[in-house]
Amino acid sequence: MSTTTRIKPIHTKADHAAALATIERLWDAKPGTPDGDALEVLATLVDVYEREHTPILPADPIEAIEFRLEQQGKTRKDLLPILGSRSRVAEVLGGVRPLSRVMMVRVHRELQIPYDVLMAEPAQPASVVRKRKPARARSVRA
Fold first, then answer.
1. What is the pTM of this model?
2. 66 and 104 share one domain
3. Residues 6+ apart with CB under 8 A from 62
4. Is the pLDDT of residue 19 over 60?
């Protein structure tokens, strides 16, 4: 490895890409060596740059529920005792109905999904309860 690794602040995407390439090259450096120190400093600079330029979006509550079901080998059917009914499960997972506070408590307790995730705004907000279309007027034949 090279002990003359040039370290500079990361201001652009090109700087970021170059720093990542250098980190990859230095990955196996031993701690306490010049290359190990360079790796540690570069990793810190990359971390700061990424925190400022690529924020992590909050998790979507519906995606979190579906992911946890998949992780635990469960299906929508397993949400019936938690959310109440098949139609309620379909409405919540379909984004038609938001999670109520009671639902959030039950989902948290049963699926161990953090409250902050369940309280986050869904990626696609629940629409207002849909109104039924008016029935067609029957034509009266004389």
1. 0.54
2. yes
3. 92, 93, 95, 122, 123
4. yes
Six token digits for residue 83: 């959310």
Q: 27: which 2 tokens?
A: 């990955």
Same-domain status, 79 and 49: no
Q: Is 137 helix (H, G, I), strand (E, B) or coil?
A: coil
91-128 pLDDT, tens digit per residue, is 999 999 999 999 999 999 999 999 999 998 877 655 54
Selection from 101, 102, 113 nearest residue 63 by Cα: 113
The CATH number of the domain holding residue 66 is 1.10.260
Helix, strand, coil shares, percent, the chain, to 5: 55, 0, 45
